[in-house]
Amino acid sequence: MKLQALVVLCAAAPAAALAQAFPAKPIRLVVPYPVGGTADVMARVLQPRLGAALGQPVVVENRAGGNTIVGADLVAKSAPDGYTLLLTTAATHTLVQYTNKSLPYDPIKDFTPVSAAGRSRGYIVVNAALPVGSFKELIDYAKRYPGKLSYGTPNVASSFHLSGVLLEEAAGVKWVHVPYKGGAAAMRAVASGEIPMSIGSNGSGIPVLQTGRAKLIAVLDADRDPRFPDVPTVAEHYPGFERTADWTGIYGPAGLPRPVVSRLNADIVAALKAPDTAERLGNVGLVPIPSSPGEFAGMIARAVKVHGRAVQVAGIKPE
Amino acid sequence: MDADALAMAFKALAIIADPGRMLYLIGGVLIGLVLGIVPGLGGLIGLSILLPFTFSMDPYAALAMMLGLSAVTVTSDAIPAVLFSVPGTVGSAATVLDGFPMAKRGEAGRALGASYTASVLGGLFGALVLGISIPILRPLVLMIGSPEMFAIVVFGLSLIAGLSVQAPLKGMAAVCIGILIAMVGEDPQTATHRWTFDTAYLWDGLPIVPLVLGIFALPEIADLAIQRRTISGRFNAMSGWSQLQGVRDVFQNWWLLIRCSSIGALLGAVPGIGAAVIDWIAYGHAARTEKGADKTFGTGDVRGVIASECSNNAKEGGALIPTIAFGVPGSASMALLLGAFLVHDIVPGPDLLSKRLDVTYTLVWSVAIANIFGAGICFVFANQLAKIALIRIGVLAPLIVGVVFIGVYQASANWGDLIALMLFGVFGWFMKRMDWPRPPVILGFVLGALFERYMFISVQRYEFEWLGFPIVLGLFALALYSLLGPILKDLNKERRRLGGRVRIALAPPTRALPPEAIFTMFVVMALGAALASSWKWPFDGKLVPHTVAWAGILFATLHFFSRYVALAPAAGVAPGVNAASVPEETSEPGIVRELGLRTVLERASGFLAWCLFYLGATAVIGLLPAMLVFLVAYMRFQGRESWRTTLAVSVGAWVFSYLLFHRLVAVSWPQALLGDWLPHLRSIEALNLF
After folding, report:
1. Residue B16: Cβ within 10 Å count
2. Could you tell me which chain A residue has the CA closest to the CA of B331?
3. Which range of residues forms the domain containing residue B10?
4. Helix (H) or strand (E) run with residue B502 in it
5. Complex prediction ipTM
6. What's the fold here for domain A122-220?
7. Against a cut of 0.90, is the pTM above it?
8. What average pLDDT does this structure show over B576-592?
């Protein structure tokens, strides 16, 4: 018995020592996107407060390339000591495995989820001149003109493209996908009348809505947007509908010691809950979603399921 | 502008004139100037470092600082462009074309004076355009849909004719090469991986920095190293005056300044058409319209410097337009600025054009004031900087190469950046030696991706109806005009020279083909390989690459035939290779003639070997330590400098690089063998270079 306790103690000691000393040097927060995107802004908003809480500088490092695979691979193969973390969108761990024949890492097994960070709200925006006043009318319109209504999204196989595909399936309509370069460009095209509809984030949608040249018809999320309390969710009409994930989260490599995960999680959650961070994120259109590592792992598993189905419905083949 | 708006404009001036905010603005300007000078670093990296610090700042000060920084990187980037032909940012690549020959002539001061003056006036012009157009911003932005964007891109591509006046056919083939390079990566239509060779690095496409520095900077440095000379043999003693001469040049060419600034401001407002092409388009415009430009442009004509420099500063004001009006960022820098807006709860859209007009005018003033400070500071130091042209090449070449490698690596922190730099460097050197125009490659690269995207969106949305839109038709007509003229002229030149009637004689060459012909054949074969390797792609994914590759083959072949398969005059002159009549190395008389082909090839291989030595050392001891070894070794053994000079210069430059890249920018260095052997080193922050 004593011997066993000793063994346990010895095994636990380095981990405990690590947690106490952690962090002893600056932390790299790898963002697998170029500067300026949602994930990057998220990282840079978190950076000052997280650095203060940890007592060590947090260095944001943009390692774009290969649909986030380059940056993710770097973190997956780094030492599990908590000094190299990954902040990325859901796509890295829940979507790329369906769009790629091979990955240099296992998106689930090679990472330790630390905490979710933030999510966008998904907007369905139509041109003001489109003769539809509600979500139901939009669907009726689409049914009357099958294969005619086109919708713009930030990119092919983006979360919003896949949500559009799932919506087509749920409502039994057929519309045409037009991939733009970025959500803002797709929304602008709605305002100018180039395309009748766009599915995108609140961040790119709000500037266009304010011009009065476009209207918000429905939101993709499970909850209504407090900014537009009268606009329904898609699920209110189609209860089975679940939007594809568009959140960001923070990960370490697999095998991150539990005490380190707890420390990081506590400080990240506190940073996300701090009023100034929440306000800044809110201004960018992001909803902070502080969560425990367990809750975050659940979100990941759920997104893997939803994406698997969406990719299948969309008929996207892995490259 | 109504009285209300005018009152707002002055209110904004009062806001920005606050000493505290002014200080932040100047701080931003100083950082921007430094980042502009260092090749590979630009406004983007500065903005991303600053962004988190601005959250807790007063919003006006934050925006002033960020705009101050991004507005002046395109002022100081002319310094390395003029002095040693290395564009400081992608925005000053066109400045090299005439600025560097001026420096070689000993007119660096004049070129710099002209470029600063053009920069500040262009910047002010851009700010003015932004300020005046605020009331009509939204309709303006809405007018430009995908079909119009497509037409703008086509028009931009057509300007290559102006960038390759001597040989439009080679220019057309080069633009095709550029477009094909842009096709590398995941195709936005079908998600096909085009020419990615199963590497994640190529998946999102090649970054532009290795392409620009590889194609422009490395070949020039290589030639300097081959010639073993200082950049300029002489230095204008009255250099203070020569700067003023540059200022005078700008005012004498005020009409050119206004035209090119307008191009900058207008194209700046078009999302996606960034700094990397605007300078070329303005330069191409100048080369087509200025009197005698086809003789003097590219050989040190100050008007080329003015065209390029005013347009890239004017762009900044224009680029703010879509960002302010709709939150559509036209570039990565604008995306970061947009992030800063949003974090400070400044939402783009109607509010910024009505209720919060003061914010918008603050932006206008920030751009204007930053340009004035930026150019002013550059003027103060211009004289000292111009003397760089006198430094011995044995010292200068390693310094430039040393920094260029690190700057390029910074682009995406990947070994791929360094490899791409070397490959493009070799290709660029051959292009330069074979007198193939290089600017079209850049133009094709930037516009190629837009070309494909907007074509597909236009067709998906309008089928073919959009081809009849008035703006589209107008731009197409302009494009046709700027394209066809020079090509017909080129084809006819031979014909005229040979006196009217000709017959085509497919006679075998009477002597060995000149190197340029072999290079042309290589280009045709490379394009053919591109075709063959993409044969199985889905239709939407290969439509543009195939069309472009065929076009490239056509142009290169036409060029080949028009030059090497004799167009013999009807009256009896023996058919044969008429290469003798082709002025080889038209833009660059002579290093082969001067040194002999053998010496040139020997020294070129030597220079390549030094670069590979640098790369190899990087793999073993890390990029930054390798830089020191490379500097010392090159200066001592290749440059034959004294140990004293070698060590003083190398160590000084290295410490500066260490502080800048490791401490400030926090580059995460490529993993090297040394770090694998001694992993302990990586855990020490100050030594984490491996």
Report:
1. 22
2. A36
3. 3-478
4. strand B502-504
5. 0.77
6. D-Maltodextrin-Binding Protein; domain 2 (3.40.190)
7. no
8. 46
